[in-house]
Amino acid sequence: MMIAPAPDPDRVVALCRPAAQDVTVRVIEETGSTNADLMAALPGLAGPMFLLAKHQTAGRGRAGREWQSQAGKSLTFSLAWKFARPLHGLVGLPLAVGVALAETLAVFGAEVRLKWPNDVLLQGRKLAGILIESAAAGSGSWAVIGIGINMGLDAEASARVGRPVAGLPWLAALDQDVFLAALLSTLAETLDLFGQQGLEPFTGRWNALHAYTGQPVMILEDGKVLHEGAAAGVDAVGRFLVDTAAGRVAVMAGDISLRVKE
Fold first, then answer.
1. Which residues are catalytic?
2. Residue pLDDT, tens place only, 146-180
């Protein structure tokens, strides 16, 4: 399989739509975690920054889980973005970012679906994940949005994940600058809109992309079943809705995992 050249930061910016023209783009060979790097850099940032590492050695997913990353076989990057809204105003941001990622992938022919709260699935298998960390900034806040996309993890790495994963081998051969510019542009437009209106403009779009609508699911926490019923999507503040035998319940995001009931 032919591998496309590494991204060119200047060309990525030049290809971006207006909303992302002011984002600083950096590409590095290797780091522990792009999220950790940007969180540490926040005090000195004058504006949004996009950091892509060809290889991450300490990438993390939700709940501190390790994110498997291999050079040339995954895209791992983070975007630091400053909001005028306070930290509590960022509730639901992972869902909006998921919509941006799914809609960008659709432009390139990958019809993906979303799993609450922060996974992107291809044919039922995990293709990408989102991890958002935040920090107060006066009356506003910073969000550092980490995204990892599998292009083609090998069997050993997939086994370490412990569950089925998907890949997009053609993405490795695609012009990376074009793809990243499209994704960064959509992310910037999404974050601008979220900053103005919060989650409301994205709930319908998320529900339209929901992987498990109407399917029987279980909500687990620490291996214990909290709720089971039919998945009904998300509400206006990003809570996951389950229609149980006792009625509809709304579950807040956190260390809760969604599993399709066997």
1. 62, 126, 259
2. 999 998 865 555 556 566 788 898 888 899 999 99
